[in-house]
């Protein structure tokens, strides 16, 4: 299934976090924080949003840092993805 986000929306897939601490302690899933680093899977076309012209600054394949509780989570083809606004992306990681 192909996802085509609208306007200034971006589809991201969370990048797995470490399951062990630096000292070797294994963390349970409930003890892990929601990862804030993600990979961009799809990008909307931008355009006029709320009366302002929005230019998309991210592209497919970028690694980004997102706001912790931003966007809506969906399960598509067995993968968990988050759809959020470009303004919820804090930085591109190079």
SSE arrangement:
Blueprint: E1 9-14, E2 37-43, E3 47-49, E4 52-54, E5 63-66, E6 72-76, E7 79-85, E8 89-93
The gist of it:
The chain has strands spanning 9-14, 37-43, 47-49, 52-54, 63-66, 72-76, 79-85, 89-93.
Descriptive notes:
It is a single chain. The chain has 94 residues and is mainly beta. Helices cover 0% and strands 43% of the residues. It has no helices and 8 strands. The strands form 2 sheets. A 6-stranded antiparallel β-sheet has the order 6-7-1-2-5-8, with no helix packed on it. A two-stranded antiparallel sheet has the order 3-4. The two termini are 29 Å apart. The model has no long low-confidence stretch (mean pLDDT 85).
Provide the descriptors you would attach to this structure in a database record.
single chain; 94 residues; mainly beta; six-stranded antiparallel β-sheet; two-stranded antiparallel sheet
Structural class: mainly beta
Helix content: under 10%
What does the average pLDDT come to? 85
Ends apart, CA distance between termini: 29 Å
Strand order across the biggest sheet?
A: 6-7-1-2-5-8
Sheet with most strands: 6 strands, antiparallel
Helix-strand pattern, N to C? Answer: EEEEEEEE
- Low-pLDDT segments, ≥5 res: none
Give the radius of gyration.
15 Å
Number of strands: 8
Number of helices: 0
General form: elongated
- Indicate the proportion of strand residues: 35-45%
């Amino acid at each position: 299934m192909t996802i085509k986000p609208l306007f200034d929306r971006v589809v991201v897939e969370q990048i797995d976090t470490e399951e062990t601490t630096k000292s070797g302690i294994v963390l349970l899933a409930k003890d892990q924080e929601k990862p804030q680093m993600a990979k961009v899977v799809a990008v909307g076309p931008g355009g006029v949003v709320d009366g302002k012209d929005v230019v998309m600054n991210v592209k497919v394949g970028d690694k980004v840092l997102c706001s912790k509780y931003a966007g809506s989570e969906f399960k598509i083809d067995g993968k968990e993805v988050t759809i959020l606004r470009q303004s919820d992306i804090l930085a591109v990681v190079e």
